[in-house]
Amino acid sequence: AQKVTQAxxxxxxxxxxxVTLDCVYETRDTTYYxxxxxxxxxxxxxFLIRRNSFDEQNEISGRYSWNFQKxxxxxxxxxxxxxxxxxxxxxxxxxxxxxxxxxLVFGKGxxxxxxx
Amino acid sequence: xxxxxxxxKHLITATGQRVTLRCSPRSGDLSVYxxxxxxxxxxxxxxxxxxxxERAKGNILERFxxxxxxxxxSELNLSSLELGDSAxxxxxxxxxxxxxxxxxxxxxxxxxxxx
Lengths: 116, 115
Prior knowledge:
By secondary structure, chain A is an all-beta fold. Chain A contains no helices and twelve strands.
């Protein structure tokens, strides 16, 4: 069975600090996909990134970066120079391949508070 | 704006009642997913439809049902409502055409309160 664990329930940082959100996953599939979604206080779920299991290259998008390590089954998300607008709940998710279009298994989420 | 629309935004109803939540996927998307977000259970997958047919089932109660219509919009029906059904219900869509798609784009959600 697939499982996603986000051990950090809540994190609080001061603006401009760097913060890393941890995500550990379990799956028996050899091909799978990992995702991060952001849920701001307004409630919608915003897609941030998708990674497939064959691509362990780290990705950077502006202040956001992701570190995928298959050896430790982790897909961590770092926000550099955090801003108040980054305050949100962040979810890590996993889906099996099966040709795409498969349901997501979500972690419990990490609530990030960035204080000015 | 993800392009996925959900109505209504808020719904307040009493125990034992039945409600219908509606979702319109992004233009061209064939797959629709329903998820429930509650404080104790987190985000859970309920059911998926692909081009009108049920594709996958998750932790969906027997009191809940869904369908996807020929115009690809979907409805989630919740009946015999209980207090524990109070939650945020999300609809998501992905393409599912010849090219497989893995990202799901979520609607704004319907917040259901059962009193």
